[in-house]
Amino acid sequence: MVSYMDFSRAALVSGLALALATAGCGSADQATPAATPGPAPTVSVVASTDVYGAVASAVGGSHVKVTSVIHTPDADPHEYENTPADVVAVGESKVLVTNGGGYDGFADKLAEAAGRKPVVINAVALSGLAPAEATHEGAREASHEEHAEGFNEHVWYHLPTVAKVADALAGELAKVDPPNAGAYQANAAAFRGKLDGLTAKLNAIKAAHQGAKVAVTEPVAGYLIDAAGLTNVTPAEFSEAIEEGNDPPAAVLNQALEVFQGADPARALLLNAQTESAATKQVEDAAGKAGVPVVKVTETLPAGIVDYVQWMGGQIDQLAGALDRK
Description:
Elements: H1 4-31, E1 43-49, H2 50-60, E2 64-70, H3 84-92, E3 95-98, H4 105-113, E4 119-122, H5 123-127, H6 136-139, H7 159-176, H8 181-209, E5 213-216, H9 222-227, E6 231-232, H10 236-243, H11 250-258, E7 269-272, H12 278-289, E8 294-297, H13 308-324
Parallel strand pairs: 1-2, 1-3, 3-4, 5-6, 5-7, 7-8
Helix pairs in contact: 2-7, 2-8, 7-8, 8-13
């Protein structure tokens, strides 16, 4: 026979179990609410390279769909040939971000071929660094070898220019998508804050190593070198020849090799990791034999990197580490 006490105990246990189960279900429902899909991106942006694509993504956030024409490290912007898909992407875009200065002439051709013309943001034109012949209008038909004399078109290594590109993006995106104007402006401000952090790193290098000698294979990171207060001692004829895909004269190559020797040698070599030739290999080997650190820089984002600040900050950190070694 089941006693009243036994029955009560069983009922109590059963009730507690039911209460706990109910509470558990309620907690699970509160902790994992049904996911609601966010709004689809409303603005299409095309960038000539993934460097500018990364800037566009930082400013546009979830409101933009960014397509980078050059999006792999093995694609050469100087030699790139447009595809029909590229033309379609630009035709559907609201904004096209280019470097300009003759660097990515394929982007100008895309804009011309597109049925609907996007607003073009040209970094070289925004930079204020270039002579008139290197601006968008003057360089529209220019090849890589026809750049304005002495002008370094790699302006994505010039942080003030990158900030201008971000501001221009925020302004143009706000025009085509007014409801999200505030988000674009806030994103651009946050991005500029991160660029300020990179500038602080360069200022720290400058304070510690003002005037220190460095060598390069190409003038890709020239603006970064200048901002860090460093001195490029590579013969200009050597780096220009490499940039144009030519072999430097033997005498010039020897001069480039000699910068790693003597009582006051170059303290780091900034090597364009995306361009290798017999001459650049000799320079890299000479640096290695002399115990000079090699800092690899790139023209587009390395595989696995999608954030501009992460990429540029990593290169700056490598440069600082190389200089701190001596």
